[in-house]
Amino acid sequence: SEIGTICDQVLSITPQTQEQVDILRNVSTHYETVLWQPVSNEYISTQVQAHLYVPANTSGHIQFQVNHLCLHVYFRVLLANPNELTKMQMKNDSTDPRSSSTFYERYHTLEEIYDWINRTAQDNPRTVKVILIGSSYEKRPLYVLKVKRWWRKNRSISKSGFCVGVDLNRNFDVDWGIKGSSQNPCEEINCGPFPESEPETQAVANFLRRHKDTVQLYITIHSYSQMLIFPYSYTFDQAENHNDLLEMVQEAAQRIKRYYRNTYTYGPGAAILYPCSGGSDDWAYKLGIKYSFTFELQDRGEYGFLLPPSHISGACNEALLAVKTVAVKVLEKTQAPANDHTI
Question: Which Pfam families match (predicted)?
């Protein structure tokens, strides 16, 4: 049947022939649609699911192509009304979010996140320190929390929840602009005009450069696809400590499966996903941080980038278990006491 146009939809489309791949690539290049998965239309291929966001106001020409394509290939509607999920994510009934038992089961505004950061530091002056490392493109402060000698990076996102401007995970100076990226500012995978062109990238890179001799573990957390990734993503060459990195993510994936019955794919980024340049994990690894990872959280496409608040707890539990598993392994590998390491 044809795809309706009453409301926005997210479709899962699996092309069967090269002609269908070409049609889907053509559709996904127009601004009226957004390709959620894969990250670039160059990675659309036969027998592989593609997730496409189709707005209700899609032009008749694009709508015809989508309908024509879906009449001849396997497809299903992942989300029939993603706008409702977006509204659900922004809903917050509490005047003081921290007073609610469901604080960690909701999405929060940037102001609420800043408030949480400041209150956490004030309530725990001996164990938590807030460090300003720079400002975002929108001149918002970028903070690092130093917690019992653990480093955590915090970064703002766009209010709409969708990618805006440069993809920061393609803006780092490692094989920049070569694979899986674009210098077209209208592309979702825009790598920027030059490496570290964005203030957010500069802030993180400068911070890591200053502390590269003490930072042992770097983890960047993304969504979605449920993957535990390690270098390299920009090349199919194996990292020097490939076996150690593989052992860590394998154990993390196994523990997530055992405790939460959820499956995570794991391995080098280029091998299990696609070649991609300019990633922060590859850059950190090349800087000398030999335990560097990217965690892609829930889910595998049922909700995609619009994970409902009810799933936050599960996603966080899985991520925390993976972080703890990897961190303990790093401490074992570096053969130093847990209270004498910067991670």
Answer: Peptidase_M14 (PF00246), Propep_M14 (PF02244)
Residue in 215, 207, 197 with CA at minimum distance from that of residue 134: 207
Q: In the Cβ-directed half-sphere of 37, how many Cα atoms lie within 13 Å? A: 23
In DSSP terms, 134 is beta-bridged to 142
Task: Look at the domain 217-335 and name its fold.
Answer: Aminopeptidase (3.40.630)
> Which residues are catalytic, by number?
296
Query: What is the model's pTM?
Result: 0.82
User: What residue spans define the domains of the chain?
Assistant: 9-80, 90-147, 154-212, 217-335
Mean pLDDT, residues 284-300 taken together: 96
- pLDDT tens for residues 61-92? 676 777 777 777 788 888 888 888 887 777 76
Residue listed under structure tokens 């009453």: 6
Mean pLDDT across 25-47? 84
- Contact partners, residue 215, CB within 8 Å, separation at least 6: 151, 208, 289, 342, 343
